[in-house]
Amino acid sequence: MSTPKKFMQVFDRLYAAYGPQQWWPGDTPFEIMVGAVLTQNTSWTNVVKGIENLKANQALDPQAIVDTHAKRLAKWLTPVGYFNVKARRLKNYCTWYLHAGQFEELAKQDTHTLRESLLSVNGVGPETADDILLYAFDRPVFVIDAYTRRLFSRLAYVSEAEKYESLRASFENKLQKQNDKVRLFNEYHALIVNHAKYFCKTKPACEHCCLKTQCQY
DNA sequence: AACCAGGAGACAT
DNA sequence: ATGTCTCATGGT
Predict the structure, then answer these.
(1) Which long-range contacts (CB under 8 A, 24 or more apart) does A84-89 make?
(2) How far is the CA of A12 from the C1' of B5 (A)?
(3) Domains of chain A by residue range
(4) If you ran DSSP here, which 8-state letter would residue A78 be given?
(5) pLDDT digit string, tens, across residues A43-88
(6) Class for domain A29-136, per CATH?
């Protein structure tokens, strides 16, 4: 149905409109991992405040997070929203992360093994896992999020009902022949998220406005 | 003042 | 396998 060329044309238009995005916002792989968990169904501006709180308490560290009582952790995560679940999820993640030997050991694993291991953590679903794989471990996986679904279903390149794994496989397949997929996937997902600011606000959305820099409808 | 944000898990059907 | 509910603050 949609050709690989179309998927690159969308990328080219987004890149031409917005330029390189310099993702993921975060200084270290671990900070990226924390951000990936905290941003679940949450705006990034809220996540920043939570990460600032962690930093201010010397708690942007896996051992510190494991050692911090959930109640105290949740308090730091207040501005993030879902602070009780996310405190629990962060602790789950950090327990796994420390047990697995942190970045150095995990970086030795092949992408599939690492992905399955990430998904075994309670609180890490497919999108969070792929955020971490792409942005912390530089693996060529295409992240599917709500914006990706919305944009490409509005463009009628995919159906709204398509499931996560199917979409991911589809995107990765369409872009298989591109070189430097890590960089491409990195920019592509970031551009889609950035572009979401300009999504058509009308309901139902018009089908053709979603790739214009400024929707005038 | 409703509505949504860079999802995921528990649970019922 | 597929729906529905819950989690929660902050910005429009």
Answers:
(1) A85/A123, A86/A37, A86/A38, A86/A40, A86/A123, A88/A123, A89/A37, A89/A122, A89/A123, A89/A124
(2) 26
(3) 4-22+142-198, 29-136
(4) G
(5) 999 999 999 999 999 999 999 999 999 999 999 999 999 999 999 9
(6) mainly alpha
Q: A85 beta carbon < 7 A from strand C?
A: yes
Nearest to A144 by CA among A152, A180, A111: A152
Q: Are the CB atoms for A190 and A23 separated by under 8 Å? A: yes
> Looking at chain A, how many residues does it have?
217
What is the identity of the amino acid at A26?
Answer: G
* pTM of this structure: 0.94
Query: Crossing angle of helices A181-195/A146-154, nearest 10°?
Result: 80
Under the banding of pLDDT at 50, 70 and 90, the label for residue A199 is: confident
The distance (Å) linking the CA of A42 with the C1' of B5 is 5
Count of CA atoms in the C-beta half-sphere (13 A) of A181: 15
